[in-house]
C-alpha cells in the first residue's frame, strides 16, 4: 500500500544537489481511462504519496522520495539512470466511493453538457457562438423539467390521481388505503392526495441540488494556478480557450445554473398541483375565492418561469479570469422563491373541495407534448447556429458541424427513456401488467406510449447500421491481409496470426466511422419523436388503438411495436438502476462504469449543473501546480507523459503553464485521442489551429500511436509539422512469431502497454535532451509558499 510523505521529501527549499551537479529531471506520468494503481504505473510495489489526498495524488517509488537531494548513482532500480518518475493517479475522481453509482441516473444531463463543447470553431462570429451556447443551456433546462415532470407523472398522476382514486386499484394496495375515497378520510380528496404525493418529486429536486452542490465542493472547487497573461507575447492576441486562466474554474455559472434548475424543478411540481386544481375551480361548482387564488398562483408560476429562463439566458462562462464571485441574490432568492410558490401550491391544492372526484387522467398531462415540441425547436435552432459556424470556418469536423445538435437529440432521447420508462413500469405494476392505454386501467400520458412504440424501429435501424459496419470490417481486413507481412520481413507467415492482426486494425478503424452511427441515430430519433408528438396530438390514443381501423398488417405491427416498446423502455430504466446498484456494491463495476465518466465528464458543467462533476477542474490545476512548483523549486527539466485520456489532461495542463515554465517542460503523449477524437468532436478547443498552437508553445512534443489502437492516433497539424510530433506508427505486435528471444507469442497491445515498447524510452530520452540544460536555483525560503499568492479565494 502507498504511504504518505512530505511533499518532495525535502527538508528545505533548496534545489542544489551534492557537488553542484545539474538538477534532476522528472517524468510526470498521467494514466488514462479505467484508472490504475501507482504501483503499476511506477512498476514498483513500494510507493509513497508525496502530495495530494485519497481522491487524487502524486506518488513516487519509496527510494526516490528525496531523489533531488541525491546523485543518480545513489538511486536504486532499473530507472536510476533516467529521470525521477512520478505518477499522478486521478481515477478516484470518477470511480472512487460508492455514491458515484448514482451518477448513472444523470446520464442525459452529462450528454447534454457535452453538446455545449461540440460546437464548430468560430471565425469572428462571437454572437453566433453565444447564441449556440444559450440554446444548449435552454435544452438542458428542458431536460430538468422533463425529469421532474416524469416524477410528477408517477407520483401525482399514476399513484395519487388514477390509482388512489380508483376503488379497484387502491383496494388491492394496503399502502394506498388511507387515500382511497371509499374510506372518506381527510386525505381522500384529490387535491390533498396530490399535495401529499408532491413530496416525491420535491425530494428528487432537493437530491439533485444536493448532489450538484456536494460534488462541486468535493471535485471542482480547486482554484487554478493564476498566471498573468502576457499581452506582449505573440500568442496573447489569439490564445486557445484552454490557455485562459478561468477555463477550469466555472464556480459562478454552475452556482447560477444550479439555482435556476432547482427553481425550475420546484415550479414544475407547483404547476403539476395548480393546473388540475384550477381546472376544477373554473368549472361550475368551483369556489370564487379558490378560483381567484388559482389565477394568482398561475401568475406567480408564469413570473417564476420567466425569471428562471432569464437567469439561464443571462450569460455564459467567464474564462478570461478566475471568477470567484457569486450572484448570491440569484442563487438564494430564486430557488427560495420557487420553493415558496410550491408551498403555496400545496396549500391551495389541499383546500377542501368536497365535490371533487378524480376520473381519467390528471388534467394538464399534455405538458409532455409541449416539452417535446420545445426541445425540438431549440435543437433545430442549435443546428442552424452550428451550420453558420461551420460554413464560416470549415474543417475536419463530423456531421458538417452538427455533432453538438445530434448529441443534444440523444440527450433528449435518453431523458425521454428515463421519464417514460419509469412511468410505463409503474403503470404496469399498478394495473397488474395490463398494456398501458389498452383499457380503462392505469395509463401514462399517450405521448410516452407513442415514444415507446418508436423504440423498436430505432433499434432495428441501429442493428442495420451495425451489420453494415461489420461487413466493412470484414472488407478492410481482407484488404489488409497482403500488407501485414511487410512489417515483419523474413518472418514465416502464419495465416491465423495474420488474420488476427488485420482484424484488430480493421476494428480499430471503426472509431473514425462513429459519426455515421451518431448522425443517423440522432436524425431518426428526431424524426420518430416528431411523429410520436404528431400522433399523440392528433389521435389522443395509444398507437394500438389509433391503428384499429388500419389494415390488419398495420394494426398488428402497431400492437407489437407498442407492447415491445413499452417493455424495452422500462427495461432500459431497470438496466440503469441495476448497473447503479451493482456499481454501488462493487468497486470493480465502478471502475468499469468510471470509463464512461472519464470521457464524458472531462468538460466543465457549462450547460447542465446536475451533470456529473468535471474531474478536470481538479486534475488540471493539480498537474499545473505540480509542474509549476517543482520546476521553480528544483530548476530541473520535466517531461509530462500522458496515456489515453491522461494525454488530454496533460495537454490541458501544459496550456495553463506560464511561458517560463513551458520552456522547461516537454510533452509525451501515447495512445492519445487528442486529434482523432477530441480534435474532431470538439474542434473549437482541440482543432487543428489549437493543436498547432500547442505545438508552438510547448518546448517539444512527441506522440506515439499504433494502427491497432482504437482510441489513439496521429497528430495531423495544418502546417505540415505533424511528423515533428509523431514518430510514426509503432509496430504491434512487437514480434510476429516465436523466436529464441520470444518463445511465446507476443500479444497485440492495441491501446495499452506503450511503455514496454523500446521506442518509449528512446523518445522520452530524446525529449529531455532537447530541453535546455538547467542550473540549480539559489536556496529559497518558503518556495512552496510563494505559489500560494496565486490562489483565488475559493
Automatic annotation (TrEMBL):
Annotated transmembrane regions: 131-151, 194-211, 259-280, 292-314, 326-351, 371-390, 402-427, 447-469, 516-538, 558-580
Origin organism lineage: Bacteria, Bacillati, Actinomycetota, Actinomycetes, Kitasatosporales
SUPFAM superfamilies: alpha/beta-Hydrolases
Domain of life: Bacteria
Annotated organism of origin: Streptomyces mordarskii
InterPro entries recorded: AB_hydrolase_fold
Residue spans of biased composition, Basic and acidic residues class: 60-81
Keyword annotations of the record: Membrane, Transmembrane, Transmembrane helix
Region spans: Disordered: 1-81, 769-794
Name of the protein in its database record: Integral membrane protein
